[in-house]
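Chapter review. Work through the record for AcrR family transcriptional regulator before attempting the end-of-chapter questions.
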Amino acid sequence: MTKSGITSKEAKLHAILDAATELLANKPTASLTEIADHAGIGVATLHRYVESREQLMLQLCLRVTKVVGETIKRLAEETKDEEAYIPALVEELIPMGDKIHYLTNEASLYYSEEMAAAEREILEPVRASIRSLQQKGIMRQDLDSEWILNVLYSLLILTWQQVQQGNIAKNAAAKLVLDTLYRGVRT
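C-alpha cells for AcrR family transcriptional regulator:
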C-alpha cells in the first residue's frame, strides 16, 4: 500500500487509465496497442489490467467519474464562500478537460443508467451552488439551473480543447470560462 491507501497495482492501473483517457479524448478510435504505447507499456501488460476494449472503457468511465466527483465534492466542502466555488471549480476542472471530454463523448455511456446516475450525483454540488447563486441574484433567475450547468460543462470542454490546440494560453483559460459564463448568466 502507498501513502494514499492504494496498492502499486491500483496506482499502475490509474496511470494506464489516465494515459488512455488522454489519448482517447483526442483519438477516440485508438487501438489497444496505441493505448498501451501511449501509456508506455506493452499490450501484454495492458491485458493484465483489462481484458478487452469494453472493459477498458468501463474502467475509464468509473475512474473519470471518481476523479471528477472527488474534485467537485472536495471543493464544495473546502470553499465556504459560495461565490468562490464556481471559480475554484473551473480552475481545478480545466486541467481535467480530457476526462470531462471523455465522459461526455463516450457513446457507451449514453446507454448506462448507472453512469447517468453517477454523473447526476457528482454534479449535484455544482447544481446546488448555481441554484444558491440564482437565489442570491448573482446568476440570472430566469434561466434554468440545469441550462447554466450544461453551459458551464460545455465551456470547460471547449476551453480544454482550445488549450490543447494552442488557441488559448493555459493560464488564461479559467478567466475566459468565467468571463464567458458570468457575462451570459450574471445579473
